[in-house]
Amino acid sequence: MVTLKLGFLTDQLGGQLHGSPDTQISRLAPLVSAGQGDISFLSHPKYISQLEKSQATCVVVGKAHQEAAAMRGACIVTDHPYAYWAKLTQLWVSQQPSKQVPHIHPSAVVDPTAEIHPSARIGPLCVVEEGAKIGEGTWLKSRVTVSSYCEIGSHCILHSGVVVGADGFGFALHDQRWIKIEQLGRVIIGNHVEIGANTCIDRGAMEDTVLEEGVILDNLIQIGHNVRIGKHTAMAGCSAIAGSSTIGAYCTIGGGAGVLGHLQLADHVHISSYALVSHSILKPGTYSGMFPIDENSQWQKNAASLKQLHSLRERIKNLEKNNKP
N or C terminus: which one in the chain shows less Cβ crowding within 10 Å? Predict the structure, then answer.
């Protein structure tokens, strides 16, 4: 494992260093478990007690916590500690030694008509079908399937088990039997998209399913056919979007949440975990709840009232009883 000097980190990433630039860092670690030779970070004030007790050699902090961090040792001060930490993890990985691996693993199955950029990496047991396109710097990890004629942009990461371009869930009921509707569209994925393990993105029925630039999807997500997801939207694990819905840009969808089909979410809509979106949302904001979904502030009031329903019921019964003629 390579060790890096604090001076090198700030030369590459910026930030104001308080401490010796020659101090060596050998590990990135959480505040609570960091020790000598480790660097950690503080991005939320509720963890200030962990900062005071931390044995980390250096801590990345915002300006508000500069004094507390400097009292305990070396620190790097930056306007956005969490973003700085993200960039630090990337820098750290880039500096570690890596063994040479083939760009296309010998166990991968790649159709001769597929277009694979020379810098893309196709991992073990992947399948890339006919006419598919894989862009510059994109990395398909193990057991990823990219179905026929689907396109993946540049600098994307698809984690193990991702399936891009399976048939959408399209069937017509006739004479008590389901008749399959052939799915004729594709999946088009923009640049800088990351897709978590075992997530499935269905091809369109007639039009394409589209993920725009910068979308990030967690593990175990279902994206139905003809869905369109706007740029830089993020979805947490086990969420799902039913067919033909359009999700705006810079939205967030919490874990286990669902969006029913043929709906529209405006840009900057934020859906709380386990909420069910049953109607289009055209106003930016945070929405929560399952009974039914509403603006977060209104839903919280209703939820507080719901907890009192039993006592209110008993009071009403007593009032009715006492007011009988």
Answer: C
